[in-house]
Amino acid sequence: MRFSRRLAEQLEPSALSRRLARARAAGAVRCDLTSSSPSATGIAYPEELLEALRASSSARYTPAPLGSLEARRAVAALHEGVSPEDVVLTASTSESYGYLFKLFCDPGCSALAPEPSYPLLSHLARLDAVTLEPYELMYDGAWHLSTAPLAPSPNARLVIAVSPNNPTGSCLSRAELTRLSALGLPLVSDEVFHAYPFTDEALPSLLDLDLEVPCFTLGGLSKQVGLPGLKVGWMILSGPQKYREEIRQRLALIADTYLSVNAPAEAALPQVLHHGARVAAAIRARVRQNLRALDQALAGSSMTRLTASGGWSACVRLPATREEEAWALTLLEAGVVSQPAYLYDLPGPTLVLSLITPPDVWAEGLEVLRQVVSDSS
Ligand SMILES: Cc1ncc(COP(=O)(O)O)c(C=O)c1O
């Protein structure tokens, strides 16, 4: 039997994953500081939202490849000046990436993508026979696009930005997005965490810019209203009008081949987005509360939080007295689950923690973290 190379050769779980599975099975996990599913972290969902989902469930099915007009209108209304015809519905942000790879990349082509960033991106690319060419984000007390010249290979067909990025929480400035666009390739900005700024200042968006290349801004229900299971995502087209009609036609062909958007969730989308604004507000409040608690817990310790602008994660730099995985294992022995930052190609020793953790679990986990670090110094 021969398998395709679209999947990694190595399917074995890492030593840390095995230890974690054993700790979970033994009931030895006291504080999971990595859960990123709002419904598993005590975020409440308004009854009206759940009612809208119940009401939309029916056997009626009238598929529209790019999404129904009502649903596209509801997504467009989230952003000033966006027309419903520039909205394309998908089943998730992951699927949006898949569509864009299919739209622009032949097998063997590549896409520029940030490093560090979200690890699923390389799997998504690989499943579409696309490779990623990393461009560097650098940290000097704040995150920046490296000033080194961007040098895409002749195979590059697409540039991806993730802003706010996962896990760094960093945003590309308008000038940095403009610099990426100067490569002359279609530009994709994954803005799934855009509704979660750490302060009241709005974050930059690709939609604010008037660029010369085809642009795609990605979002979805999984982060917008904390409901990944509904399977609705979207992309918003911007950039020169002259490209948009052909892009829409080609995307419609791809989407028509799968028709993967969940019909009841699509029918309920206007109500879900409307009532989901309360879920987003609750998640934002949770994130900010946990950030304050984190900063208090780190004050006077030998740990620092890397500066960030938004999202659901915090990156905490630990003393270099141990390897990152050793820190994560020591914490696990004390019942606390954390994520080593190497999973995101982020230099260590750094741990990635989920800011949507329930506050009581967060407080207890941070106390253990402080203790473990202070005992070992
Ligand atoms: C940056 C980023 N984009 C996309 C996704 C996945 O979104 P979806 O559930 O819509 O596929 C995630 C999930 O964590 C993410 O961190």
Summarize the topology.
Layout: H1 15-25, E1 31-32, H2 47-56, H3 69-76, E2 87-90, H4 93-104, E3 110-115, H5 120-127, E4 131-139, E5 143-145, E6 156-162, H6 174-181, E7 187-190, E8 215-220, H7 221-224, E9 233-238, H8 241-258, H9 263-298, E10 304-305, E11 313-317, H10 324-333, E12 336-337, E13 339-340, E14 350-354, H11 359-375
Parallel strand pairs: 1-12, 3-4, 3-6, 6-7, 7-8
Antiparallel strand pairs: 2-9, 4-5, 8-9, 10-11, 11-14, 13-14
Features:
single chain; about 375 residues; alpha/beta; Aspartate Aminotransferase, domain 1; Aspartate Aminotransferase, domain 2; 2 domains; eight-stranded mixed beta sheet; binds pyridoxal-5'-phosphate
Give the oligomer, counting copies of the same chain as homo and different chains as hetero: single chain
Give the ordered list of helices and strands: HEHHEHEHEEEHEEHEHHEEHEEEH
Q: Counting H and I runs of at least 4 residues, what is the number of helices?
A: 11
- Structural class, by secondary structure, is alpha/beta
What's the N-to-C terminus distance?
Answer: 52 Å
* The CATH superfamily title of the largest domain: Type I PLP-dependent aspartate aminotransferase-like (Major domain)
CA radius of gyration = 21 Å
Compounds present? pyridoxal-5'-phosphate
Strand content: 15-25%
Side-by-side strand order of the widest sheet: 2-9-8-7-6-3-4-5
- According to DSSP, the number of beta strands is 14
Helix residue percentage: 25-40%
| Biggest sheet architecture | 8 strands, mixed
